Each structure stands twice: as C-alpha cells, then as structure tokens.
Amino acid sequence: MTRIGYTMMCEQAGPKELVRDVQAAERHGYDFAVISDHYFPWVDAMGHSPYAWSVLGAAAQATERIELMTYVTCPIKRYHPAVVAQKAATVALLSDSRFTLGLGAGENLNEHVVGGAWPPVNTRHEMLSEAIEIIRALWSGDYVNYRGRHFEVDSAKLWDLPDQPIRLGVAVSGAQSVELAASVADVLIAVEPKEQLVQAFDRAAGPGKAKVAQVPVAYDPDRGAAVARALETFSWFGGGWKVNSELPGTAAFEAASQYVRADDITASIPCGDTVEDFVGAVRRFTDAGFTDVALCQIGGAHQESFIEWSAKELLPTLNGD
After folding, report:
1. Which residues contact 311 (CB under 8 A, 6 or more apart)?
2. CA–CA separation, 13 vs 31, rounded Å?
3. What is the pTM of this model?
C-alpha cells in the first residue's frame, strides 16, 4: 500500500503555522511529512521562508508518530556537510529516529546567498558525492579528517547520535544522479513520475528501497479560486528541474513563468475538490513505482481545510478503504 505524506512547504507559511499543520496531518492519519529547505520562496507571492531545521526541531517535539524528512537539503554550498551531519543527528534524536535526511544538489535560488559562482551540474554532483561521504563518516561516531576536491573536514566528531542508523535519501532527475543515489542512498527522491528513474535505481541498488515523490495539489470547494491560487504561486512548477535549479531569484522565476495560463496549471495540478483528480495525480507516481507520495497543498492559509477534507475524502480512497 502506498504511504501518503504531507508537505510542510516553508515557502508559503511561517514556522508556527508549519508546526500546527504537521500536528494536524498526524492527527488525521498521514504517514509521513516532508519539509522544504529554502532561503527564498519561489516567487514573491508565496511570502515566506523560515529556517527549516528550527521547524523540524519543533515538529519533532510537537508530534509523536508521523515520520519527518527534508525534501530536500543541499549540503554543498549554503551548509557545509559536517554541519548537515550534526543537524540531522540532532533531529533524529529529537524525533526518536523518525527522521530521514533527504539530500539534493540544490538550486541557485537558495545557495547564491553565501556568494561565489553557482557550479555547473557535474560539479554539483561531485560535491554532493563528497558531502555524503563526509556525512556518513561522521554518523559512524568516529573522528573524521577529510581532504577532497571540494571539501575539507578537520578532526570532526559528532557527540550525540541516535542508536538507530539515520536514513538518507538522494533526489534524482536523470541517469547521473540515479547512479549516485543507488550507490549511497536508502531512499530515492524525485519530483517527476518517470518509471525509468525507479527502474534504474532498483536495478543498481536492489529492490525494496523506498521511492518518495511529491505531488502539488490545490484543494478548494471553489475550483476557480484553487486555479487562481495555483496560477499565482505555482506557475514556476512546470519549468522542470534543469531550469528551476539554475534561476537565481524570485524575479527570474516570475519572468520565466509569465506566459503560463490556467489551462497549463490544470493540466499538471489537480484543482478543486474532485477526489478522482487528486487520486489520478497520485496514481501517476504509484504506477511509475513510487512507494511514498507526499501531497503539497498550494496556499499557506488553506492547509487546515485541505487536511480535514483529505482525511475524510482522499486518504480513504488512496488507502483502499
């Protein structure tokens, strides 16, 4: 049975609201929750971007059962991998090992804030591979010294580690990132329903590992309002990962998506309150082999009504009840 998750989208809600909403998701039967780790929203209209790791610490204490996961953290520029290893270990302890560290090669949108040029994708993958080596080594509990092409670690050690190993996921978009994920990850992460990504990962890593995806949705009893909200804040979504990882700021995303129309939105994002439309969006991923699908409700002020509606109407259908 597919596990259904909830998205704490930092780009569209403040920290207190995110914690409140994940508590509601837990009460209403969601299996897990993912959280975005951004410094900027995608577009100005979203209006938020609190520090995801503070939110995770609060969420770990405010919940008891629901699993938590970064979707995703970039450990190659804004954060040094040694710091990411420590943050992940702390959240794993606070959550009683309910935490999965999801990693990716990042977006210029968030990483440019610390200065320096945005590396090309091949370099980013090299950096991510080194970062994962460092993180895994520090999770062993030993002192770590590391001299790589991109990173150095000088006699580092983590003093607080959970008893259970921390799960690690890697985001993929093509053959190169799948190869990396298969060699180092416990979990595959993707944003597109591409069966070839899942099959390539299973061939290289072996079957049985979790494959996690995310589906944007716009619930509202007023379908027109849902479409308008999605058009205002999610027009960037259709740009694809190769474009979205390169653009440097919110103005660039707004310019790149200025010609997106309502029909373009409804072709890729379920809008309104027709259960079958939402189920169809999830099925595109489950049919491609994904085991876990996180729903991302568009609109920070519309989370409570979505969670309540989904618990009554959507989750029972997805779970086959």
Report:
1. 28, 29
2. 21
3. 0.97
Q: CB under 8 Å to 141, separation ≥6 — which residues? A: 157, 158, 161
Report the C-alpha gap between 198 and 172 in whole angstroms.
Answer: 10
Eight-class DSSP state of 260:
-
Residues designated catalytic? 38, 107
The residue written with tokens 């990396």 in the block is 180
Q: Contact 91/99 with Cβ under 8 angstroms?
A: yes
Residue type, 77: K
Coil vs helix vs strand at 212: strand
Q: How many CB atoms lie within 10 A of CB 176?
A: 13
Burial level of 251, CB count in 10 A (0-12/13-18/19+)? Answer: exposed
Other Cβ atoms within 10 Å of 245 Cβ, number: 20
**Do residues 278 and 220 lie in contact, with contact meaning Cβ atoms separated by under 8 Å?**
no
Q: Which domains does the chain have, with CATH numbers?
A: 3-318 (3.20.20.30)
pLDDT in tens, 182-220: 999 999 999 999 999 999 999 999 999 999 999 999 999
- What confidence score (pLDDT) does residue 71 get? 98
pLDDT along the chain (321 residues), means of 10: 96 98 98 98 98 98 98 98 98 98 98 96 97 98 98 98 98 94 97 96 96 98 98 92 92 95 96 98 98 98 97 94 47
